[in-house]
Amino acid sequence: MKKLLLSFATVALVVASAAGSSTRVTLFEKSYIGGEELKPGDYKVEVNGDKATIRNGKPVVEATVKSETGSEKFPATSVRYANADGKYKVQEIRIGGTKTTLVFSGDATAMGSK
User: Fold this and answer.
1) I need a surface site. Which of 44, 75, 95, 110 has the fewest CB within 10 A?
2) DSSP per position, 11-72
3) Cα dist. 69→40, 72, 78, 80 in Å?
């Protein structure tokens, strides 16, 4: 079986919010976080401790996340994927204009109404 192939694609556009613990991102492809599907569209990513809530009007996914600070600012927001079984699994979101990388683990929970 092939190992996960990493593809680095700049597929996101961010508008920083005043709170600083949240950001907006646009996903252009169907993406997965911890096995939960995110359809293409605009999302707000809110980070509280080691949890990230990804919402598109309503909460969609809650995932375990680790925030890391690099040495240089990112010129644009980008999403780093692992491509497995033809699925784009989000590994990291690098927030443009900051030194912050959000690193996602495999844990996620679907949220919202059924």
Assistant:
1) 75
2) -----B-TTSSEEEEEE-S-EEETTEEE-SEEEEEEEETTEEEEEESEEEEEEEEEEEE-SS
3) 27, 9, 15, 16
Average pLDDT, the chain: 78
Per-residue tokens: 103: 């690193």
pTM: 0.75
Instruction: Give dist(CA 69, CA 111) in Å, integer.
Output: 28
- Can you tell me the distance from the alpha carbon of 70 to that of 89, in angstroms, rounded to the nearest whole number? 22
